[in-house]
Specification:
Helicase, Ruva Protein, domain 3; 2 domains; Rossmann fold; 10 helices; two-stranded antiparallel sheet
């Protein structure tokens, strides 16, 4: 009968042979889920024998991960900015870079009683995290997405964190009324030609959440020029983009009449975030 440690080491070796990054960490998550404990608690249980009733479903999870199914889809959750959110194939898996967008947005000069709009919300993690972080300073949070499935997931995540939100099924800003003090978006920005270069894991995300036309900017070219109609005076736009798209997106923001336009790097030094303010 295998112990927890033997299972952990064997599973990590299996994942390593199949090209999974961070195989031991992945196996820790899978094993912790199967045993209904935390990863830390595993270390106090290394000598514990595992039953066949525990091993059988674990083998299934291990095979799924070995074939490239994202860990977040298998677990059904993802950690984002210190909180857990539901995660599945209905929306893009949130990336660490997007956590940086949220952190930077929260450092902007924001007034109280903010109205927040998260465009192309996907699983809702950006708008929900901002709303939760601002607390009583947030008057309302609106989430939009073209995909009804993604919106349903966003609603489930808002309910999970007890944050009141309004969800609008919309193509970018179509159907959105009123003005907002903070508008955030992480729109699809991957060029269509890069599809074959994506990892097995990314290929499990919805294509509509990934690709933005031949150069990745189709949606952003439609979105930024229309933003002034929805920003309150001195309201802010916070936008995540591809690392090669900064100069064109900055030009779009300036042409739209926005001020204080700037491009910020992510932690790896890639120009990733655009911030701009309405007059």
């Amino acid at each position: 009968m295998k112990t927890v440690l033997e299972c952990l080491e064997g599973g990590a070796s299996y994942l390593r042979e199949r090209g999974v990054e961070s195989p031991r960490r992945n196996m820790e998550w899978l094993l912790a889920q199967q045993l209904s404990c935390s990863r830390i608690e595993l270390y106090a249980s290394f000598d514990r024998p595992m039953t066949e009733q525990e091993l059988a479903p674990l083998r299934g999870l291990l095979k799924r991960r070995g074939k490239g199914e994202p860990l977040q889809h298998i677990l059904g959750i993802v950690e984002f900015a210190g909180r857990e959110f539901l995660c599945d194939k209905r929306a893009l898996i949130p990336r660490p870079e997007t956590e940086e967008l949220v952190e930077s947005a929260l450092k902007l000069e924001l007034k109280d009683q903010l109205r927040i709009l998260d465009v192309g919300t996907g699983s809702g993690v950006i708008g929900i995290t901002i709303g939760l972080s601002l607390g009583e300073r947030c008057a309302s949070t609106v989430l939009t997405d073209l995909s009804p499935d993604a919106l349903a997931l966003a609603r489930e995540n808002a309910d999970r964190h007890a944050l009141p939100v309004s969800c609008i099924e919309a193509d970018l800003l179509d159907g959105v009324v009123g003005k907002y003090q903070l508008i955030l978006a992480n729109l699809p920005y991957i060029p269509q030609g890069e599809k074959e270069a994506l990892s097995r894991e990314v290929a499990h995300d919805p294509a509509t959440a990934l690709f933005g036309g031949h150069d990745g900017l189709d949606l952003i070219r439609r979105f930024v020029p229309a933003i002034r109609n929805h920003l309150s005076p001195c309201g802010w736009l916070a936008l995540e983009i591809g690392s090669s798209q900064g100069s064109e997106v900055l030009a779009l923001a300036k042409s739209a009449g926005l001020k204080a336009v700037r491009l910020e790097d992510d932690l790896s030094g890639k120009p990733r975030f655009v911030f701009a303010q309405a007059p």
